[in-house]
Design goal:
Layout lengths: L3 H11 L3 E5 L6 H7 L10 H16 L9 E6 L1 H5 L1 E2 L2 E2 H9 L2 E5 L11 E2 L7 H10 L4 E8 L4 H20 L3 E8 L6 H17 L6 E6 L8 H4 L4 E7 L5 H9 L4 E3 L15 H19 L2
Parallel strand pairs: 1-2, 2-5, 5-7, 7-8, 8-9, 9-10, 10-11
Antiparallel strand pairs: 3-4, 6-7
Helix pairs in contact: 2-3, 7-8, 10-11
């Protein structure tokens, strides 16, 4: 009997399209709202701020341009997972109305830099979050840490932490997206990417029959992560935009066959709170089409 998880696994592993990242956290929400045309004086409490960003996300998810023809999955902030869209829980809306596979962000921020990297902060609430996510029909998770420079000790520690937590997520019945971001401003970015590739390969080879997804910074050398795309323990490799603009992100993505987008900032390019709905739909449809085309190149 085919389960919902099996159906979603097949979709994220084989379908044309990309993963929409709608997981801005408390720290990045004000910047996301500002880009959307909502100034900081529009709210006075965190609760009001999160109401505003949920309204933005809801408008994106319910847009006529946001469809499973172009979008395979969507990554949610924890609060978004717990809220509703059109009378349904957000994961339920995504899967049962849109056939878009739901993921949830599970990290709680970055530790201070050491050995050239920022590890994930300890997350004692992870087990509880995974239980809630599973109960709500979430398929997978995403967690971010950052490589700031090419330091072998730091990179190996960072990737090992990602996979250790990833195994905990697999044990909970969910699919982890491993995300060792490399800062696009790093002076030795290509050398850092070499170290990331080596460290990930080592961890993948120790997974036995377990599978993960990877979310990686668009590399300096086209095709740099091709061996990870082809690795039997990798369901899919997705790319973050990392600060590149829409054109730059799509151009780099198109040079990396087999990698699909998981963009956040560039996905909301040209979207504004005061736009009439037809303008909003036209803008997001155009952006989605650009990202989709780069993802299937």
């Amino acid at each position: 009997m085919t389960t919902q998880y099996d159906t979603q696994l097949d979709r994220v592993g084989t379908a044309d399209g990309f993963i929409a990242a709608l997981d801005q956290s408390g720290g990045s929400t004000p910047k996301a709202l500002a880009a959307y045309g909502v100034a900081a004086d529009a709210w006075s409490t965190d609760g009001e701020m999160f109401d505003l960003v949920h309204a933005m996300r809801t408008r994106i998810m319910t847009s006529s341009g946001f469809t499973s023809d172009r979008i395979v999955g969507a990554i949610l902030f924890e609060q978004t997972m717990d809220r509703q869209v059109d009378g349904l829980t957000t994961p339920d809306y995504l899967w049962n109305r849109k056939q878009v596979v739901p993921f949830v962000k599970t990290d709680v921020g970055l530790a201070d830099e050491a050995d050239g990297v920022q590890l994930m902060k300890d997350n004692p609430g992870l087990g509880s979050l995974l239980e809630r996510a599973s109960a709500k029909g979430v398929f997978g998770t995403k967690m971010r840490s950052v490589v700031q420079r090419a330091n072998r000790t730091g990179v190996e520690q960072l990737v090992a932490q990602q996979f250790a937590v990833g195994n905990q997520i697999i044990d909970a019945g969910l699919m982890p997206i491993i995300e060792p971001e490399v800062n696009i401003e790093a002076a030795d970015k290509q050398e850092a990417e070499d170290l990331v590739l080596q460290a990930i390969t080592k961890e993948l080879d120790a997974l036995n029959d377990r599978k993960v997804m990877l979310k990686l910074t668009l590399p300096e050398a086209p095709g740099h992560y091709a061996s990870l795309v082809a690795h039997p323990n990798v369901v899919r490799v997705v790319a973050l935009s990392g600060g590149y603009n829409l054109e730059g992100s799509c151009s780099r993505l198109a040079q990396n066959a087999g990698t699909i987008a998981s963009f956040s900032r560039v996905l909301t390019n040209g979207l504004y709170a005061e736009q009439p709905q037809f303008e909003f739909d036209a803008a997001i449809t155009a952006t989605i089409e650009k990202i989709f085309e780069a993802s299937i190149t």
